[in-house]
Amino acid sequence: MGGPKGGGGDGSSKKPKDPVSAYAFFVKISRDQWMKEGSNPLSFVDHSKKCAELWKEMSASQKMPFVELQMKDKTRYQKEMRSYVPPTGTPAVKLGKAKRMKKAKDPNAPKRGLSAFFWFSHDERAKVKGANPGFGVADVAKVLGRMWVE
Questions:
Q1: Mean of the pLDDT values across residues 67-77?
Q2: Numbered ranges of CATH 1.10.30.10 in the chain
């Protein structure tokens, strides 16, 4: 199940392709078999549904060849990741998944101005709370929202 995305092992800077699941191997192989037979070509949706049904009905021993393919692919991925060096200036890498680095926040930066609704809510909150002492925060917010729309 290779493709243009993979390729950490040949010295390129591209991250190795993630390992493929046993189910994904099953879907690909069954699709290839059905395409060879050519008897009744299925749409993508129909093929996915059929594969899901067959996979659920399969016993653990029937799934074993696909699990073995998965284990081989996982070994390939781990081997390629050992030699992979991410390019400098890329986001932090955590467990093989790219994660955006959070921008450092300036503690001295000015805060945003309040919107008109927040100024309105600030002025009216005490009135609503006084008229409805049993209301919680969410209930007061709902009343303020309705008042703002009117």
A1: 93
A2: 22-86
CB 58 within 8 A of CB 66: no
CB 53 within 8 A of CB 121: no
Q: Burial letters for 113-136: b for 16+ Cβ neighbours within 10 Å, e otherwise? A: eeeeeeeebeeeeeebeeeeeeee
Cβ-Cβ contacts under 8 Å for 18 (sequence gap 6 or more): 77, 96
Residue 83 confidence (pLDDT) = 87
Cα distance between residue 53 and residue 11, in whole Å? 41
Lowest mean pLDDT among 4-8, 50-54, 93-97, 108-112: 4-8
- 76 near 68, Cβ under 8 Å? no
- Amino acid identity for residue 120 in this structure: F
Instruction: Give the three-class secondary structure for 109.
Output: coil
Q: Contact 64/14 with Cβ under 8 angstroms?
A: no
Pick the CATH number of 22-86 from 1.10.10.10, 3.10.180.10, 1.10.30.10, 3.20.20.70: 1.10.30.10
Distance between CA atoms of 118 and 120, rounded to whole angstroms? 5
